[in-house]
Structure formats: structure tokens, C-alpha cells
Amino acid sequence: MIAALANPQRFLAVSRWAAPLLGAVAAVLLAAGLWRAFAVPPDYQQGETVRILFVHVPSAELSLFVYVCLAGASFFGVIFRHALADAAARAAAPLGAGFTALALITGSFWGKPMWGAWWVWDPRLTSELILLLFYLGYLALQAAIEDEAKADRACGILALVGSINVPIVYYSVDWWNSLHQGESIFTKNGPLVAGVYLWPWGLMTFGYIFLFGSLWLVRTRAEIWRRRARALALRAAG
Amino acid sequence: MIHLDMGKYAVFVWPVYAISAAVLTWMVADSLARARRWRREVERLSRGKPAP
Asked: Got the DSSP string for B1-52?
């Protein structure tokens, strides 16, 4: 399937209907998730701030998920020099930066009333900040190199180097003493979160995943067209 | 029942939802605008032939 979609023409044909379909599913999931987020009772310890977690946790999960997609696309771009992989990597980076910034900002709004501080140099927060710097570094490097092939290669290598940070972010709460709470959903003994809160979390998380899927397809289509327009302009000029 | 009274935490909860909505809306709008812009550019450069 990946080999079939690697053809830009076939990708454009499939993504033409897949992008709006994923977007529609995302809209339904996010609407249901928002409704559940404000229908659940306040937490006995966190009070109403528990509702912040229904947007903070999906943003944080997507910040890692998008980076895995970016690193995967970069791997195919660097190793096989496939133009569609490079376009997909370029398309994912701004979305990943957006989700990571959201995770840090929304986490900060939860941290102030619960921890008494907007920011602490905790391993999870610090590694998440480094993740944002990798995204921003990727975008800056892309903008700085004029030769597109060289930019794709340099950015691909940077993305692959940055993938070392993904397990560090995920396991930081286990490897170091952390103020940030540990894994509370995918544990050996099942979720540690009250069942009533799993629904809004699950709906919002899948809503974010489908939204990213839809936007990734739209941005990859835009990137293919941008490259095509550049080639046409060069042909017309030459 | 929907809980909209966030009490003393309203100054933390509502900005989070407002910022999230703003960033997600920007993501959608920017993605669609880029796709439209480059599709039209390809159509213009290929003399009105519709882009795939």
C-alpha cells in the first residue's frame, strides 16, 4: 500500500477523498469529545482543572506521534531519496510544532493552579521543550537552505537525530524523579484514571489524530503542487 | 448536564480552550490556503489545465 501511494499521482487521487473524510471524522470526534469534556464531574482533587487535561494530553500525545511520522518520512527521504517522503516530512513539521507548543502552553495553565508554578525544569517538560526546538530547528533549516534537495537532506538528517528525543520524552517520567505524573492510561494494570474521564480523553485524542491525518494529507498535496509549480516556472523561464 | 461554571479555575480553563481552538483553526486555515494557492498556481502555469 505504501509503495502504491508513493506515486505522487496516485497519492493525489487517493488523498483527494481521504483528506475530507478524515476531517469529517475528526469534526465528529472533537464535537463529541468537547461535549463529554464539559459533561463529566470535576475531579475530587484537581477540581475543574481536570478539563484542561482533555486538550493538554492529546496535544502532548500528538507532539510525539507527529514527530514519529516526521522521522519516518525523513528516513524514506534520506535513504531512498523519495520526493513524496520529503514532501510529507515538510508537511508534518509545522503541524507537529503547533501540537508541541499547545502541549507546553496548556500544560503551563494546568501547572500554575496545581503545582503553583507556570514552569519547572522537570525532565518531561524540559524534554518536551527540546522537542519543540527540534521542530523549530527543522523549519528554520528548511527556510535557510535555498537548494531544495540539500534542504530536504539536511532537514531529514536533523529529524532523524531528533528522534532520539522521542523515547526520552515518553520515558522521562520513569527514568527520573519527576513532578509530572507518570503513565496513567497504558499501564500493566490498566488505566489508573477513573473511567468517566477516559471517554473525553479518548474522543479528543482520536479527534486530534484524525485531524492531523487530514491536515497532513492536505499539506502534502500542497507541497506536491508547490514543487510542480516550481518545476513549471523553471521550465517556462528556461 | 454540561458544567460551564469553572469557579476559581475559570482563568486557567477557558484560556486553554481558547488557545487550543485558535491554534487548531490556524492549522486548518493555513493548510487549506496553501493547498488552494499552489493548486491554482499549477493550473495557471499549465495554462488553465485543472491540477490533479
From this structure: ------GGGHHHHHHHHHHHHHHHHHHHHHHHHHHHHHHHHHHHHTTTPPP-
pLDDT at residue A1 greater than cutoff 60: no
**Model confidence at B49, in pLDDT bands (50, 70, 90)?**
low
B15 contact residues in A (CB cutoff 8 A): 109
Residue A191 carries which side chain, given as an amino acid letter?
P
pTM of the model: 0.95
Are residues A182 and A123 in contact, defined by beta-carbon separation less than 8 angstroms?
no
For residue A191, the model assigns a pLDDT of 84
A181 and A53 in contact (C-beta within 8 Å)? no
Residue whose C-alpha cell reads 530547528 in the numeric block? A137
In whole angstroms, what is the distance from residue A92 CA to residue A59 CA? 15
Cα A7–chain centre separation: 24
Contacts of A232 in chain B (CB under 8 A): 42, 45-46
